Each structure stands twice: as structure tokens, then as C-alpha cells.
Amino acid sequence: MSIYGEYKPTLELILNDLMTRINQMNSDYQQAHEQSLFEHLNGRIKTEKSMEAKCKKKNLPLTPHSALRENRDAIGLRIVCNFVDDIYTCIDLIEQMPDVTVVKKKDYITNAKPNGYRSYHMILSKKVDQIDVDGNIPGEYYVEIQLRTIAMDTWAALEHEIKYKHHIKNPEMIGRELKRVSDELASCDISMQTIRQLIKEDN
Ligand code: 0O2
Questions:
Q1: To bridge 78 with a disulfide, which of 42, 60, 119, 174 should be the other Cys (CB 3.0-4.6 Å)?
Q2: Is residue 84 packed enough to be buried (19+ CB in 10 Å), middle (13-18) or exposed (0-12)?
Q3: What's the CA-to-centroid distance between 132 and ligand 1, angstroms?
Q4: Ligand 1 nearest-atom number relative to CA 160
Q5: Which residues of 109-128 are buried (b: 16+ CB within 10 A; e: fewer)?
Q6: Are 88 and 97 in contact (CB under 8 A)?
Q7: 147-190 pLDDT per residue, tens
Q8: Residue 59: per-residue pLDDT
């Protein structure tokens, strides 16, 4: 039996709907501004195995309620932008979407995690016609959206890979190096944005 129980098809429905709308948002922006808002968009339903592991870690029973209420990232989207400014434009546009309410924001771009992780996280609550885990119709489901630049995404991918390698000889040194690279990439992100601004002002 799936940890998502009978709600799995609704999770897929919400994911597809949001991906379509966010891609449309990018096309509309591209038409209006002659530049895209983001470089790419990924979406996933957290695998049942990962959701079970997360529940176990939090000492939660392996139930749809734990998966969909105690955790709010069963549905996850990741928007990867070229420039930091574009992240905040995306956030504004997402906040204006109908039938979606932002219930939590974490700005790890302004305040990077101590290890150097940078990203902007939003938890959305979305109303749907389908029943939810509390028996409500319309139902309420949570969605996590992570927004990052390409540089932040590259860093997070490498850091994630290293986390699962158990035989690192000098983890302190690797951690320090990763933090240093994260700061260098953040500085490059700012420089790239400045260059874009300079090009715009020339036109
Ligand atoms: P996966 O497989 O990526 O989904 P919560 O989810 O709210 O219980 P927390 O810590 O409050 O836990 O959430 P937070 O800080 O918003 O981070 C959640 C997700 O952000 C993680 O999901 C990662 O995807 C990403 N993330 C956060 N910190 C780091 C980090 O230091 N390095 C990397 N590479 N990614 C990070 P999951 O569930 O861990 O995994």
C-alpha cells in the first residue's frame, strides 16, 4: 500500500497543472519581455521510499496524513533561473496565481545555510475539487517550490551527491571548500546580473 494512499492521482494532477501553468507563465513573460523568466522547470512527486524515510526520521507513522500534512513536499517543483532578479519576479507571479496561497517562504538566498546552500523555498497551499486527506471537498494540498539560479543548482547537486558518499577522507575540508565555492558562485551571480543590467542600459 502506498504511503500516499488514494491521494496519489490527485498529487499527479496538481503537479501537471502547476507545471503547465508555470511554463505558460514563462511563455507569456518571454513574449512580453523578449527574454525568458527561467531556464528550466522540474517537477516530481517525492518517491514513496523517500517519503517513508522522511517520516521515519521524524518518528511519524507511515500514513497518508504524515505524508501530506506533517510533510509538505510530496509535490515538488524546482525553477532554475539564469539571474537572481528573475527568481524574485517568478515569486511575485506565483503569488498572484489564483487558487494558490503561499503559506511559508524561506529565503536561503539572502540568508544562505551555514554550509553554503542557497535557494528560495515556498510552500503553497492549493485548493482542488478532489477530496483531501482530512476528508474535505474542495481539498487542500501542499506544494513545495524551490527557486535557484543555475549556479546555485549546480552547487546543490554536487553537495547532495557528496552527502551520500560515506567514505570522504576529510569531510571538514570538503565542507569548507564547498562553502568557499558557494560564496564565489554567489558573487558570480551578482556580477552576471550587473552585466545584464549594463547591457540593458546600453540599449
Ligand atoms: P529532496 O530529495 O531534495 O526532496 P522540511 O522539508 O520542511 O521538513 P526543512 O529542513 O525545514 O525540512 O526544509 P528546507 O530547509 O526547506 O529544505 C527542504 C529541501 O531543500 C530538501 O529536501 C532539499 O531538496 C533542499 N535542501 C535543503 N538544504 C539543503 C542542503 O544543504 N543541500 C542540498 N543539496 N539541498 C538542500 P529533502 O527532503 O532533504 O530532499
A1: 42
A2: buried
A3: 24
A4: 34
A5: beebeeebbbbbbbbbebeb
A6: no
A7: 999 999 999 999 998 887 778 888 889 999 999 999 999 999 99
A8: 97
